[in-house]
C-alpha cells in the first residue's frame, strides 16, 4: 500500500478554504470586505441579542416565530437554550461532575422532580419546556466526559457540535442538489478524500453517507449481489442460486443481520475461525469456500474486519484479498472502528491491503470523534451503487433540470429522506486538518498502550490475550483478592464471571466512570476498555484503574 507522505497531510492543513484558494485577488478582496462588514454588524447584533429577564410561564410555542411579533420571544427562548447547552458542555469537561446520574427505568417513567415523560393534549409553557431541556440532559449520559469509556463513539467535539446545530437549522434533505447544493458538494468532495486515503487511484469510485455502520455493511452485501446477480433486483432471490457470505466469528453482527434482511438467511452467513488475537485465519476461509462450492452453494462475499468491536482485531486483508481474487468473490472491509487509522502515518499499516477491497465501511463518528451519526460506505467501482439502488422516481429525479443531475445523489441510497451527516464532519476536517485527526488518533492509541503497560503485570489484573493491543481496545479481567491464587475451576470462573457486572453496576450507581464488559466465546465476562475520547488523559486512565480496584476490593 502506498504510504501517504508529508505533503499529502500538509496540503489538507492549509488555512485557506477550498473556495478561497480558487478565488481571484479581486474576489478575495470582496470576501475580506464582507468579513469586515460582518465584524461591524456583530456589535449591533450583540446589543440586540442579549438575554433579558423573560417570564416564560405565560409563553408558549405559538408565541415563537413564525408568529407575528414572535422575534423577541424566539431570541430569548433560544438564548436560554444556549445557556443550558453551554452549562452542560462546561460540566461535561469538569472531572468533578458525574458521568451519569443513574436512575432505573421505572423511576424516570414515574417522573422525577417535575420532569415527566408523558405527553399531553394541551400545550405546556416554554418555562416547562426549558425545564424539560435541562432535565433531559441531567438524566442522560455525558458521553463527552473524559472518564466515559463505555462505547466506541465518545467525546464531545465543539466544532462538530457547531456543525450539527447548523445542520438542524438548515433542516434539509440530502436527496437532490436542488435542495441541498452545498451539502451535496461537501459530501462528494469528502468521500473522494476518504477514497484517496483508502488508496484507490485518484479517489475514484463512489460512496454515500448512511445511518450507521450496520447500514453501510448492508450496502456492501447489496452491491455484491447486484454485481454478480443483477437480475435479483427485479426478480428477487429466486433468480439466484444459493448464495453464501463469509465473515469472522468475531465480526460485527450486522453482517448476519444483512443476511437475514436481504433474504440470504443467517444459515448462509458462514462464520470463520480466528486466532488467539481475534484475527481471521485465511486458511479457514479458503477451506470453507471450497466446502461451500462442493455442496453446490455459490460463494459471493467476504467481510474482513479492520478493528473488531471487542478485541480491536485487524484481519489480514492482503491474504484475504488473495483468496477473494482466486475465487472471484467480493471483498468488503468493515473499517467502521478502524478506518480512522488511515489518517495516521504511524498506524495505517494495520489496514494494509484495504485498497484491494471492493467496498469499505468507515465510521468517522467512532475513532475520529465526529458527533453521531456519521458513517460512510465507499465503493471502488463507480456506477454500481446507483445501479443497485436507483428507482428513478420522477417526482424527485427529473432528468431535465437546469443543472447537472448527476449531483442528485439520493437515488443511490436505499433511503429517500436522508439526514445531513456531512457538514459536521467536513467542518471538523477544515478546522483540524488531516494532521489534527492524525494527532487525535495517535494520542488515543498511546493512551491504550499506557493502560496496557500499567496493568499487564499489575496484581489483580489479567489480560484476555497476550501481546500489545492492535487498536485502543484493551481487554482484561480484574481478579478480586478473594479469587487470587485459586485453581482455575468452573466454580472459580463462575465467580469471576460475576465480578465485572458488579463493578460496572457500582460505577453506574456512583457515576464516576463507565467502561464496558462482555463475555466472548468460552471466556467469562471481562472489561473492554476503548479510548476514542479527545478529552481523556493518562490521569483518567489512572483513575479508572483505581476505581476498579476500589470497587472490586471486597468482592
TrEMBL record:
<feature type="modified residue" description="N6-(pyridoxal phosphate)lysine">
    <location>
        <position position="366"/>
    </location>
</feature>
<comment type="similarity">
    <text>Belongs to the group II decarboxylase family.</text>
</comment>
<dbReference type="InterPro" id="IPR015424">
    <property type="entry name" value="PyrdxlP-dep_Trfase"/>
</dbReference>
<dbReference type="GO" id="GO:0005737">
    <property type="term" value="C:cytoplasm"/>
</dbReference>
<dbReference type="GO" id="GO:0009449">
    <property type="term" value="P:gamma-aminobutyric acid biosynthetic process"/>
</dbReference>
<dbReference type="InterPro" id="IPR002129">
    <property type="entry name" value="PyrdxlP-dep_de-COase"/>
</dbReference>
<keyword id="KW-0210">Decarboxylase</keyword>
<dbReference type="GO" id="GO:0004351">
    <property type="term" value="F:glutamate decarboxylase activity"/>
</dbReference>
<keyword id="KW-0663">Pyridoxal phosphate</keyword>
<dbReference type="Pfam" id="PF00282">
    <property type="entry name" value="Pyridoxal_deC"/>
</dbReference>
<dbReference type="GO" id="GO:0030170">
    <property type="term" value="F:pyridoxal phosphate binding"/>
</dbReference>
<dbReference type="GO" id="GO:0048786">
    <property type="term" value="C:presynaptic active zone"/>
</dbReference>
<dbReference type="InterPro" id="IPR015421">
    <property type="entry name" value="PyrdxlP-dep_Trfase_major"/>
</dbReference>
<dbReference type="InterPro" id="IPR021115">
    <property type="entry name" value="Pyridoxal-P_BS"/>
</dbReference>
<keyword id="KW-0456">Lyase</keyword>
<comment type="subunit">
    <text>Homodimer.</text>
</comment>
<protein>
    <recommendedName>
        <fullName>Glutamate decarboxylase 1</fullName>
    </recommendedName>
</protein>
Amino acid at each position: 500500500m502506498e504510504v501517504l507522505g508529508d505533503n499529502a497531510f500538509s496540503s489538507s492543513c492549509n488555512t485557506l478554504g477550498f473556495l478561497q484558494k480558487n478565488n481571484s485577488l479581486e474576489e478575495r478582496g470582496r470576501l475580506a470586505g464582507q468579513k469586515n462588514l460582518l465584524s461591524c454588524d456583530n456589535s449591533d447584533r450583540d446589543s440586540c441579542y442579549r438575554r433579558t429577564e423573560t417570564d416564560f410561564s405565560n409563553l408558549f410555542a405559538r408565541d415563537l416565530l413564525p408568529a407575528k411579533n414572535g422575534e423577541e420571544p424566539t431570541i430569548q427562548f433560544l438564548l436560554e437554550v444556549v445557556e443550558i447547552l453551554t452549562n452542560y458542555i462546561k460540566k461535561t469537561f469538569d472531572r468533578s461532575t458525574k458521568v451519569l446520574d443513574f436512575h432505573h427505568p421505572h423511576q424516570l417513567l414515574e417522573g422525577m422532580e417535575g420532569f415527566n415523560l408523558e405527553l399531553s393534549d394541551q400545550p405546556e409553557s416554554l418555562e416547562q419546556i426549558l425545564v424539560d431541556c435541562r432535565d433531559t440532559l441531567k438524566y442522560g449520559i455525558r458521553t463527552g466526559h473524559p472518564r466515559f469509556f463505555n462505547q466506541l463513539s465518545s467525546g464531545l467535539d465543539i466544532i462538530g457540535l457547531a456543525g450539527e446545530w447548523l445542520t438542524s437549522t438548515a433542516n434539509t434533505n440530502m436527496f437532490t442538489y436542488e435542495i441541498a447544493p452545498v451539502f451535496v458538494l461537501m459530501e462528494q468532495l469528502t468521500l473522494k478524500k476518504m477514497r484517496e486515503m483508502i488508496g484507490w487511484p485518484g479517489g475514484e469510485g463512489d460512496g454515500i453517507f448512511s445511518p450507521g455502520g450496520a447500514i453501510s455493511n448492508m450496502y456492501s452485501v447489496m452491491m455484491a449481489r447486484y454485481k454478480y446477480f443483477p437480475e435479483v433486483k427485479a426478480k428477487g432471490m429466486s433468480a439466484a442460486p444459493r448464495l453464501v457470505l463469509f465473515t469472522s466469528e468475531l465480526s460485527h453482527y450486522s453482517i448476519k443481520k444483512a443476511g437475514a434482511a436481504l433474504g440470504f438467511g443467517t444459515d448462509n452467513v458462514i462464520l470463520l475461525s480466528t486466532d488467539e488475537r481475534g484475527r481471521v485465519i485465511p486458511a479457514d476461509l479458503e477451506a470453507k469456500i471450497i466446502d461451500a462450492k462442493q455442496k453446490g452453494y455459490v460463494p459471493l462475499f467476504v467481510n474482513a474486519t479492520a478493528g473488531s468491536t471487542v478485541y480491536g482485531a485487524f484481519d489480514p486483508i492482503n491474504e484475504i484479498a488473495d483468496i477473494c481474487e482466486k475465487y472471484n468473490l467480493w471483498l468488503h472491509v468493515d473499517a467502521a472502528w478502524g478506518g480512522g487509522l488511515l489518517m495516521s502515518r504511524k498506524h495505517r499499516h494495520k489496514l494494509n491491503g484495504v485498497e484491494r477491497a471492493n467496498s469499505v465501511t468507515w465510521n468517522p463518528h467512532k475513532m475520529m470523534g465526529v458527533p453521531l451519526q456519521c458513517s460512510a460506505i465507499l465503493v471502488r467501482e463507480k456506477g454500481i451503487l446507483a445501479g443497485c439502488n436507483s428507482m428513478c422516481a420522477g417526482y424527485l429525479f427529473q432528468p431535465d433540470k437546469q443543472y447537472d443531475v448527476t449531483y442528485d445523489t439520493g437515488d443511490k441510497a436505499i433511503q429517500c429522506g436522508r439526514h445531513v451527516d456531512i457538514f459536521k464532519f467536513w467542518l471538523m476536517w477544515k478546522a483540524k486538518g488531516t494532521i489534527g485527526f492524525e494527532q487525535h488518533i495517535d494520542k488515543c492509541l498511546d493512551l491504550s498502550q499506557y493502560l496496557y503497560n500499567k496493568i499487564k503485570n499489575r496484581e489483580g489484573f489479567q489480560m484476555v490475550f497476550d501481546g500489545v493491543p492492535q487498536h485502543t481496545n484493551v481487554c482484561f479481567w480484574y481478579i478480586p483478592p478473594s479469587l487470587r491464587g485459586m485453581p482455575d475451576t468452573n466454580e472459580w470462573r463462575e465467580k469471576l464471571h460475576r465480578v465485572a457486572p458488579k463493578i460496572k453496576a457500582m460505577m453506574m450507581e456512583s457515576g464516576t466512570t463507565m467502561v464496558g464488559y462482555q463475555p466472548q466465546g468460552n471466556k467469562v465476562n471481562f472489561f473492554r476498555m476503548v479510548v476514542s475520547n479527545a478529552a481523556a488523559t493518562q490521569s483518567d486512565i489512572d483513575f479508572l484503574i483505581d476505581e476498579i480496584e476500589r470497587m472490586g476490593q471486597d468482592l
